[in-house]
Design brief:
Helices cover 28% and strands 33% of the residues. With 147 residues, it is an alpha+beta fold. The chain has a 7-stranded mixed β-sheet with strand order 1-2-3-4-5-7-6, sandwiched between helices. The protein has a single domain (2-142), classed as Aminopeptidase (3-Layer(aba) Sandwich), CATH 3.40.630. Bound molecules: coenzyme A. Residues 21-22, 72-74, 79-85, 104, 108, 110-111, 113-114, 117 line the site of coenzyme A. The site of coenzyme A has 19 residues, from strand 4, helix 3 and helix 4.
Amino acid sequence: MEILPASLRDLAGLRRLEQACFPRDAWPLLDLIAVLSWPDVVRLKAIADGQMVGFIAGDLNPAEPIAWIATLGVLPEYQRRGIGRALLQACESRLTGKRIRLCVRPSNQAAIQMYLQAGYLAVDTWPHYYKDGEDALVMEKVHPAGL
Ligand SMILES: CC(C)(COP(=O)(O)OP(=O)(O)OC[C@H]1O[C@@H](n2cnc3c(N)ncnc32)[C@H](O)[C@@H]1OP(=O)(O)O)[C@@H](O)C(=O)NCCC(=O)NCCS
């Protein structure tokens, strides 16, 4: 498994990954194009067996004290092999800001376990954040590099 920068050339792979990872929350095509092309975004893909098997994006805004991880997914058949954790660490190391935040469904115990293990703590709840009405749990970690 390799972690590499992602670009617009990865649009088809990212679309497949989104649909497999987020049956309820897959981003529309325009959002996928944006995340692969906008400036100030850390975008990394995990490649295994010649295909994109994981993706993470984080907002890189040096003026902001808090950096946000926007999305993280690993294809179901490649989960539980350390790829999510590796993508998270690689993205964190490229983000600036004193703290890193992300949103997760409270029902998503797999992701919550991964974030807890990586040092994130729940700091807020946004009621009815997701389309189906589920709240979002906001989790935060002090930036490992303390920037
Ligand atoms: C969440 C997700 C990215 C994890 O990716 P992954 O590659 O499977 O995670 P890893 O193998 O690196 O696991 C890291 C840790 O997370 C936790 N974890 C991962 N999957 C888990 C599961 N199904 N049940 C419980 N804990 C789990 C474990 O603590 C694991 O460490 P361990 O294997 O040493 O016990 C992946 O399950 C996924 O893409 N899910 C669908 C999309 C999603 O929910 N994204 C997050 C949105 S906020």
